[in-house]
Amino acid sequence: MKKLAEVQEAKELMKEAMGWSTLKWLWEKQRVRQTADAANAALDRQERSVKAKWNDNCKAVYKRMSAKRPHESGGSEAESGNSQIELLIENVLKADQAAKHAKQVAEDTFDEAERRMSTDLAREGCKKAIHSWALHEKAIHTAEAVTEPRSTGKPTKPAA
Questions:
Q1: Looking at residue 27, what is its pLDDT?
Q2: What is the reported pTM?
Q3: What is the pLDDT of residue 70?
Q4: What is the pLDDT of residues 66-122, one digit of tens each?
Q5: Helix H segments across 18-118?
Q6: Where do the domains of the chain lie?
Q7: 81 within 8 A of 4, measured Cβ to Cβ
């Protein structure tokens, strides 16, 4: 996965913001939010782009498996002709869920920091935002592993 400029810019800003005073936070909070939103949007676009390259079978498996509740796993491997694909898709779904949860936790932390006007919470939000972007990048990388050459029908993993 290529590094996204918006994410790099946001990470740098968050690292810088961890040292800001309360006044600086009040002055710059809008820029922080806009930069974070731009990073999230860039990651979302990259994720959609990667998943758009999947073949129809992989997309169908993803759609079917994502519609299930987390405690409802698919049948046994013997029941499924797509067990390898399903395992890869299951990994993508887990990575997606971890990234979405981390993003929500970061946003909630920033919201609470703003409500309380707490620079300590804002700094914690910065750390959580950086962590959420790392998890989203990992999820995208996991999704890139779900490529299936049309000729063989077998999923491949990216070269290490």
A1: 94
A2: 0.81
A3: 52
A4: 997 554 544 444 344 558 889 999 999 999 999 999 999 999 999 999 999 899 999
A5: 22-52, 56-67, 83-116
A6: 5-67+83-144
A7: no
Amino acid at 14: M
Mean of the per-residue pLDDT values of the chain: 86
Report yes or no: 6 and 38 within 8 Å, Cβ to Cβ: yes
Count Cβ neighbours within 10 Å for each residue of 6-34 and write b for 16 or more, e otherwise.
bbeebbebbeebeebeeeebeeebeebee
Residue 135 structure tokens? 């998890």
Residue-wise pLDDT tens digits, 25-34: 989 999 999 9
Each residue's pLDDT tens digit, 28-55: 999 999 999 999 999 999 999 999 999 9
* Residue 74 and residue 86 in contact, taking contact as beta carbons nearer than 8 Å: yes
For tokens 């820029």, what's the residue?
A: 31
Q: Give the SS3 label for residue 147.
A: strand
Write a three-state SS string for 88-111: HHHHHHHHHHHHHHHHHHHHHHHH
Give me the residues paired with residue 156 across strands: 147
**Residues 125, 128, 132, 135, Cα dihedral to 10°:** 170
Q: Which residue in this structure is represented by tokens 């800001």?
A: 20
